[in-house]
Amino acid sequence: MRIASNFFICSYTALLFTACSKGGGSSPVDTLPVVTINSLSQDRTLTTSNFHFTVSLDKAATSDAIVHYATLPATAEENKDYKPVSGSLTIAAGQKQASFDVEVTGDSIRKENQFFYVQLSDPKNCKLGAAAKGSGNILNENGLYFPVDNTGYSTPDSYPGYTLTWSDEFNGNSINSADWTFEQGNNNGWGNAELENYTNRTQNAFVSSGNLVIEARKETYQTSDYTSARMITKNKKIFTYGRVDIRAKLPKGKGVWPALWMLGNNIDAVNWPACGEIDIMELLGQEPNKMYGTLHWGADYTVHQSKGNNYVLSSGSFDEQFHVYSMEWKQDTIKLYVDDVQYLTVTKTDLTGSDYPFNKDFFFIFNIAVGGNWPGSPDSNTSFPQRMVVDYVRVFQ
């Protein structure tokens, strides 16, 4: 009797379970397809563009899968940077994907990247996966409009006894290739153990609102962890003597090394330092209120000589507003100025045991180096990107 009773109970339980598993109910959760959404990163464009999001199942559904989606603000703002959307998306039976668009507002300003979220919820005939929340990353970092506060020192566009021989006011839509050439690569640290890779990309140099912007970035590019730009006028715009004015706003931060300088156009024939070097402005980013001017010369590297000085602002730093870096260049004499204050004079009599190279043609170099023997490497307090903004360069003779 006890055996028969136990058999009856087990049989009844099995029958009841079987009956409950049949019929028109939904599939067990562990057999449902998993639904996810992708994340996107796109450059912002001048006009309205669409971010095309794809919602995917890990396997085709046996019946229509439905999921709700909605945008959520983050650093990007609703109705300013993007148009918020929400709705239900159906992935038809037998299919694995469906999509929807989010409209992103057009803009050209170069600023920090922004993002918004897209959240999936309320799944039917599917279940949410780990990637049920995607992001739309709006890349503003490559925009070609960079507004700059024009506050600072200025110099006149004419001087008694001088004629404006050449200038670049950077008023065009692009850098003038008739005047400027980009030097590219790392070139074994450019003789200074520098870390950057120089490029000719608009990410690193562009013109905006009457200014040249040179931008140093922390990014992996070829074999370097930093990028920047180095522009020269070699064999294009070369000069002997005159007054030079360069109005610029400088970057800052340890390991950031901006320079406005000149080399002798005969460098390929005689090498450095025999060609001569005129550093109209150099700055170590960890000393943002102090700049340096230096002249270099010597028959070869083993007998390299230099004479220089520095200029320290009485208040503020060189990244806060524009200053003008000037040179008065005459035969056998060079004088350097900041905001028309003279701080260095070099004459032919300062050179000993070496030819005086500064009575010949020189060309301009504008660049931001990153790292190097003099400034050292960036540290955790150095923020990127860092920019040098040049309003104008003018040569009067």
From TrEMBL:
Keywords: Calcium, Hydrolase, Repeat, Signal. InterPro entries: Beta-glucanase-like, CalX-like_sf, Calx_beta, ConA-like_dom_sf, Glycosyl_Hydrlase_16. Residues 148-397 form the GH16 domain. Gene3D superfamilies: 2.60.120.200, 2.60.40.2030. GO terms for molecular function: hydrolase activity, hydrolyzing O-glycosyl compounds. Pfam families: Calx-beta, Glyco_hydro_16. One of its GO terms (biological process) is cell communication. One of its GO terms (cellular component) is membrane. Belongs to the glycosyl hydrolase 16 family. This is Family 16 glycosylhydrolase. It comes from Panacibacter ginsenosidivorans.
